[in-house]
Amino acid sequence: AAVEGFDVEDVEGAIEEAGHGPLPVLAVVGRPNVGKSTLVNRIIGRREAVVEDKPGVTRDRVTYEAEWAGRRFKVVDTGGWEQDVLGIDASVAAQAEYAIEAADAVVFVVDAKVGVTDTDEAVVRLLRKAGKPVVLCANKVDGPSGEADATALWSLGIGEPHPVSSLHGRGTGDMLDAVLEALPEAPEQSFGTAVGGPRRIALIGRPNVGKSSLLNKVANEERVVVNEIAGTTRDPVDELIELGGVVWKFVDTAGIRKRVHLQQGADYYASLRTAAAVEKAEVAVILIDASESISVQDQRIVTMAVEAGRAMVIAYNKWDTLDEERRYYLEREIETEFGQVAWAPRVNVSARTGRHMEKLVPAIETALAGWETRVPTGRLNAFLGELVAAHPHPIRGGKQPRILFGTQAGTKPPRFVLFASGFIEAGYRRFIERRLREEFGFDGTPIHISVRVRE
Ligand code: GDP
Ligand code: GDP
């Protein structure tokens, strides 16, 4: 495409970059103190301390975007949580399990100075079972004298140990090259590949909002499909459930059903589980306890789904308990707390009484349709042309930036690139997003708009 004032390569490059599909996911696992967080910081190229001194410190963020040798991917860090009531092996195993499940490849970090421990062996068993590509990181090899320690890790039987010093950066480049070889270009669960396979739903929400009750309700009332269906891999943590005549895959239901209650680190554990489920799903059904005030934790979960670029439905549960007063305040809270996601279809349900369960599927279908919407370039530019003519960008410094051309570079979620003659202000970008939504729908999906400005 030729756009006035832009090189053809720039235009094509911008469209390709904006059009990238979901990124492959790399999980970094290992027992506490081997240097996972230090390594993650290294990988994402950030110096600020993710490494916490206090054990059991809650961290919400577990997924980060990274780039190496021009390829982008996501990193799931499991370093935020220390040993707790479960005992060390179970704790490490539980968090590694979630991370591995959501990942397309795994970096297994071992402290080469310490050597192989029983806990490391336990993780190796998990890795074998999962069958995902593994890159073995022999960490804390700060100098040549540590190389022998790294070599000793061949004994784990999972391939070549890569000697690394996460602290100083030594060897990380070679290890990342190996990571890129292990990572598929697009996620394993690439949204395009499971043609005809069931759509994947992550049922998420903070503890006690009613996830397990809702799952039981839908799974009991509808036929639970246990046989294998074309395009599905059997995964014991996922459940196939028929709803509204369609089979859906609820991901990570084991995490919902297991109901592991931990004293320390429970929040972190919940965040990790939520992030992993969102990564595996196409659509997030976010459950909110309508009987209580919308909390910061609710908002974080919504943000997680939006940032992951997933389709989204918000279900307000425990509707059976609401009196008129609470209903009034709930509406005000939704306006102020969830104004940014007013595009998400909303259902008011009760997992206890079954109220409005039948509205869940249409809402999910609406969200998925919005998520997959593609606007033809001709139509988009006709729309943009009229919009810009009727509502031009405010004049700044005697100049009026214009949108010259736009195209939708990708879907799932919809991603747009706009080419402009000058800097487009945030307010005007939001205005364009609003009008795009009014014109083309996009219910239930975040949309990305990037703007390229002519040099
Ligand atoms: P995590 O619990 O696995 O996330 O481990 P951390 O990243 O919190 O690191 C645990 C400790 O090991 C910290 O004190 C780090 O500074 C230290 N550490 C991490 N990587 C290296 C390394 O490559 N060399 C050395 N000498 N120390 C490291
Ligand atoms: P989870 O932690 O999100 O899986 O939440 P649970 O499904 O365990 O539910 C937490 C509590 O809320 C339980 O005592 C449920 O019986 C109760 N609960 C769940 N859904 C509803 C509902 O729709 N109405 C009412 N009144 N209680 C509910």
> Which small-molecule ligands are present, each listed once?
guanosine-5'-diphosphate
Strand content: 15-25%
What is the CA-atom radius of gyration, in angstroms?
Answer: 24 Å
Number of strands: 16
Low-confidence spans: pLDDT under 50, at least 5 residues?
A: 47-59, 190-195, 223-234, 259-264
Estimate the mean pLDDT confidence.
Answer: 84
Main β sheet profile: 7 strands, mixed
The SSE string, one letter per element, is HEHEEHEHEHEHEHEEEHHEHEHEHHEEHE
Strand order of the largest sheet: 8-9-10-7-11-12-13
GO biological process, one term: ribosome biogenesis
Binding site for GTP 2: 205-212, 252-256, 317-320
Keywords: GTP-binding, Nucleotide-binding, Repeat, Ribosome biogenesis
GO molecular function, one term: GTP binding
